Amino acid sequence: MSFYVVTGAARGLGFEFVSQLSSNNQNTVFALVRNKSSATALNDLSRPNVTVLEADITDSVAIQVTAAIIAAVTGGKLDYLINNAAVHNRSPETLSTFPSKEALDTDLLEKFQVNVLGTIHTTNAFIPLLRAADLDAALGSNNAGQTAYAISKAALNMAVAKYAMAHKSEGFVFLSVAPGLVDTETETGRTPEEEAQYQAFIQKLKALAPDFEGPITPEQSVKMMLEVIHRWTVDRTGAFVSQHGTKKWL
């Protein structure tokens, strides 16, 4: 039996991770969400090997409490931590076109608070459980917008590399996996203007990569990422790869 924690599990890729992992009754999945009552799809999944827990990753105390709850169930161990939770927006602003200094600061700080600090605090909370697990078993878009998200993710990749260096001797595997271009907005929809912008973006990508066939679904992305996660080994810890397990990003 393998124990998994998935953050940001209410919808999108996080929900898909939970859905695919829990389809194997040998897996026990702890799904972390900010608001349990609004996680409709997750609650409707209603599988005995899925436990939904409410914890905002920006609340380090709540994350520590959640880790303790999980440890009590698993005998103090965890096999996989999937840090999926992140905040993202459609902001087209570049670093020089924000309407004010305050707006730029707010955007950057919000993304760093969640995408970098939240993930680091979550990882720190679960390292003792990962340490107790059986490690042998664990073993070009031209888009200048969405700046804070991109900057925070680059910082997070460096944090993953630092974790990898610090814990390689213990047999831990740290890995940053880009999900590919995934259309997660089919759940929420796009306005006609947003759809036009999205399609223009897709055409740019196709011009850059002629073999690019278009966005993939959350189901396809998670299936590919899990294949990468499950085959990665400690000798390649700290890497940043795509859903293909390579540097092919589309």
From TrEMBL:
Q: Which Pfam families match?
A: adh_short (PF00106)
Q: Which SUPFAM superfamilies match?
A: NAD(P)-binding Rossmann-fold domains
Give one GO molecular function term.
oxidoreductase activity, acting on the CH-OH group of donors, NAD or NADP as acceptor
* The Ketoreductase domain, residue ranges: 2-185
Top-level taxon: Eukaryota
Cross-referenced PANTHER family: CHAIN DEHYDROGENASE (ATSC), PUTATIVE-RELATED, SHORT-CHAIN DEHYDROGENASE/REDUCTASE SDR
Protein name as it appears in the record = NAD(P)-binding protein
